[in-house]
Each structure stands twice: as structure tokens, then as C-alpha cells.
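User: Sorry, folds how?
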Amino acid sequence: MQLAEVFSNAKSSQDFYQRIEKKGLQPYLRDGQVVGIINNQKKYRLKTLGFSNQRIANLENEILQKHNPRLKELKQLHNRRSKNKDLGLER
């Protein structure tokens, strides 16, 4: 429950990890990346808890899209243009 609350309030991946520490949960690393938390001397993987690296990395994009609907529209236009370019439909 604490982790879901932290995730919903976080504005970036760095902010997410800082908020974890403020809640008293200690992150643990593997190969230089945070892969889980330690709580009561037990390790829990973030991925197993539903917080994959991709989901955490997308935090910033989600925040931007929530606060700026125009950004979502621009990304869709960019993706459409890229697809057209790949198909040779670009001028």
C-alpha cells in the first residue's frame, strides 16, 4: 500500500526512489539499478510488486500527458508521420 501511494505522488523515477526512502523503505540495487526494496529485513522486487522499470521510467511521460493534453496529440502526430516515412509515403 505504501508503495502505491508513493508511486501515485511521484513526479519522476528519481522522485519515486527518494519518496521510497522517506517512507522508511530501503531500496536495494543489482548491477547499479534499483530492483527492489527492503522492508523488515526482507527483500521485495519492484517488478513482482507491479512496478517494472519501464513503468517507473514512464512516470515523467505520464505526468506530462496528464498536465498537457496537447503533448499527447503531438506525439500521435509524430508517430503517424514516422509510420508514413517508414512506408515511403512522406513527400
Q: What stands out?
A: The mean pLDDT is 82.
